[in-house]
Specification:
By secondary structure, the chain is mainly beta. 8% of the residues lie in helices and 13% in strands. The chain contains 1 helix and 6 strands.
Amino acid sequence: SIDLTGATFKMSDLRNASFKSCILGNTDFNGSDLSGVCFEKQTFNGTIFDNSTLTKTSFKNAVFQNVSFTRVADIKKAIFEGVTIDKLTYAALRGYGLSLTNVTVI
């Protein structure tokens, strides 16, 4: 696996990029276009998605702990099916009006 812990991808065009088998703890995607990215089965701890575009970004079966989603574009078009999520991140996503079904809150 590739360790991207603490990496910064600010204002990056990452459309359809692959992060399969990457470690994404405290990774900063602030302002990045993550449209079409597959983050399925990834674990995010302290990851920042602020000001990012998440059109058709898939987080299926991912794990979220202390993740930031502030001023995110197209968050309702992202896929959060089957995620495991901490209460604070869950509340932030619900604040965007997402109907988070089939999720586990930890």
